[in-house]
Amino acid sequence: MSLIRTFLSFASTLSLAAVVPTSAAAASGAAAGASASAPVSSPASATTDRGVRYRHEQVGDVKIFYREAGDPKAPAVLLLHGFAASSYMWRDLITALADRYYVIAPDLPAFGFTQSPPRGQYAYTFANLAKTMDQFTRQLRLERFALAVHDYGAPVGWRLAAAQPNRVSAIISQNGNAYEEGLGAGWDPIKTYWKAPTAQNRQALSDFPTAASIKWQYFEGVRDPQRVAPDGYTLEATHIERPGMADIQLDLLLDYASNVASYPEYQAYFRAYQPPLLAVWGRNDPFFLPAGAEAWKRDIVKADVRFYDTGHFALETHGQEIIPVIREFLDNALQGER
Q1: What does CATH list as the number for 2-337?
Q2: Hey, where are the domains in the chain?
Q3: Which of the residues 150, 239, 312, 318 is marked catalytic?
């Protein structure tokens, strides 16, 4: 317990509120910058050219924290995390790709080290997250990029791709859904909230943005719990428990209905443009079912769909198996990009 308390204290020092008043932004940015000295997990084969840089980019009222690695002249790969996670979830993939690709992994508004305005001063909708991410990519001059998504990162990514298909060179989805048949039973109480967004139905979901729920999401469907490192869910727990964060997450949960309503638009994009697509899927995910991954085969002729005996955060338990598959996929899909 003393070790956990020490870690939480350290994480709290580094992870100043992602949603902060303007007067606190400078202090929060300094703390996030301090994280650059922290070691990042990387494969044993990592070399100096795979080093990760920790940076910020001001986009409107949002100060986006992002991890960057590789040569900016190389083909770009944009990594968009989901709930409950941050760019930290991509840590091993970043270093595995950085010798050949320019890898960018931002924290979305209301997640990780990104500093965004309080609720009421920024629209916490997926359309607005996508708008912010679109401007972020433009300011970084990412004219074209492969897109890797997970969970909430998927509908943000689908919006970017559908709006400007020629900017996306390839897609990797780690349990990032685009089909109604992919929605598991875990969505049932959330769908009730979509149909009737009353205070009572919102209260029924109050245990969703909690430390206990986050930990459950990391372990549910995992065959060997010893393969789940405590770092990810512990960091996200400290974040979700900050004042105002629970309401922001419930707002996003309500707005997820807009993603489902847009599924036909995203599917039309897949059919029309046939982007190279790799799905690496935890088959035991309680939220996004294998049927959602299989559905891509209807729309993308050469979709590569692979399943792993794990849950929602497949990279946490099966990174050693999945990362080489992602690298091989990118090497094949982006041959013409170099």
Answers
A1: 3.40.50.1820
A2: 2-337
A3: 312
